[in-house]
Design brief:
This protein is mainly α. The protein has 19 helices and 4 strands. The longest helix has 32 residues, at 318-349.
Length: 408
């Protein structure tokens, strides 16, 4: 049962664009947790007080740019209230389904089963069978972003999640990094999951395609080589023999561009131009990265959204959006909030490993250049917050402890 709860909570799919499953799973966990407590099958509810304090601090500090600039932007506050709600659901799910002797192993097993489910859905939808395509599109943002349905990017919606595009890529980047770090610790995970994560990660977007290499190099094992060879062979085969397929052309654009430039300049590497490999990177550099004004760097403008619900400043970059809202100080607040949960995962799962902490923060910082990553309440942050629960580090408060009540 925990595998299904884990899948629907973390990936948060829509049910035919009517209701989000993370909220459903939170309600289910609350009901089941109440039943366990009422029947005395669980002795209290573990609550990570310092994590809740971090979220409340983020909400309070996010009010300061509004007060300084005299604006009434509520978008940021609503985002972080959502963060508080999703984390509360995660705490209930942990207490209801993961208070076991091997909670970490159970969690990783459930994450791997989620990877299998996503890979199966992706493969079935890629066959073009309308039933599976409709199921996949019914779980995500295709109704909100209809221009992508039927386009060369539709394959990026072939998954079981309400998320898509960059935020989904960020999720799989973090999941891969965490899985590799966990396998370095235990050395018991099956290498096939590396291949499956790479497959669904590449389907999510080119951001994953680039950053996954860093994690693999950092946590490399020789037994990964056969799976990496299979993955590289599939990628090269598609790029060489099916470069005109609209999905392949979009997903593997960097690989196709590199191969075409190398093949065009065979024997003359000095003339090979690698300056324009990915159109998305070129667009980011040309249109979305700019230096805010000095006043904006100091205190921001107090805006995150425009009145018509577009991003203020028109930039995709997380650094730019956060600077325009609250200045450099606000960027630091968002970074420290994210770093707190990364460090809590390192403490609870990897004995405080700085290798894991610093490398993941570097990856998240690179991601934040392209789009919101620090403190953004997407499924990637939900994954970080949920993983942070599996351990005893930090200030824990046990609520509704029945054993104490009996002794009174």
């Amino acid at each position: 049962m925990s595998s299904a709860i884990n899948l629907f909570y973390l990936y948060d799919p829509w049910v035919m664009h009517v209701i989000r499953m993370s909220f459903v799973m939170g309600i289910v966990a609350f009901g089941y947790l109440f039943y366990l407590w009422k029947t005395q099958k669980i002795d209290g509810i573990k609550v990570p007080m310092d994590s809740f304090i971090a979220i409340f601090a983020l909400i309070v500090l996010s009010i300061i740019p509004l007060l300084i600039n005299g604006t009434k932007e509520l978008g940021v506050l609503i985002m972080y209230v959502k963060t508080l709600l999703l984390f509360s659901f995660g705490v209930m799910i942990y207490n209801a389904f993961y208070r076991t002797a091997n909670s970490q192993g159970q969690c990783v097993r459930d994450l791997e089963r989620g990877v299998i489910a996503q890979a199966i859905m992706g493969l079935l939808a890629l066959t073009g069978i309308s039933l599976f395509v409709d199921i996949a599109l019914g779980t995500n943002t295709s109704a909100i972003l209809p221009r992508f349905a039927g386009s060369e990017q539709e394959y990026r919606l072939y998954n079981i999640t309400s998320s898509a595009f960059f935020q989904l890529s960020a999720f799989f980047v973090v999941l891969l990094h965490f899985w590799l770090a966990y396998n370095e610790k235990t050395n018991r995970q099956q290498g096939i999951f590396l291949l499956l994560i790479l497959f669904i990660g590449v389907m999510s977007g080119r951001t994953f395609f680039v950053l996954s290499a860093l994690s693999i190099l950092l946590y490399f094992k020789w037994r990964y080589v056969p799976y990496l060879i299979v993955f590289v062979a599939i990628v090269l085969g598609l790029a060489i023999y099916l470069p005109d397929n609209r999905y392949v052309e979009h997903a593997l654009e960097p690989v196709i561009n590199i191969l075409s430039r190398v093949m065009y300049n065979v024997g003359d590497w000095g003339d090979t131009d690698f300056s324009q490999i990915s159109s998305s990177t070129d667009t980011l550099m040309q249109k979305h990265l700019f230096m805010p004004e000095l006043k904006q760097l100091l205190m921001g403008d107090g805006y995150y959204y425009t009145p018509d619900f577009r991003y203020y400043g028109g930039s995709d970059s997380g650094f730019i959006r956060q600077a325009l809202y609250g200045g450099v100080g606000y960027i630091l607040v968002c970074f420290l909030f994210t770093a707190y949960f990364v460090k809590r995962i390192a403490d609870n799962w990897f004995e405080g490993s700085w290798k894991f902490t610093l490398s993941l923060l570097l990856i998240l910082s690179v991601l934040n250049i392209k789009a919101d990553t620090y403190a953004f309440p997407g499924i990637m942050l939900v994954l970080l917050m949920f993983l942070s629960l599996f351990g005893s580090h930090g200030k824990m408060l046990v609520l509704f402890k029945q054993s104490e009540a009996k002794n009174v």
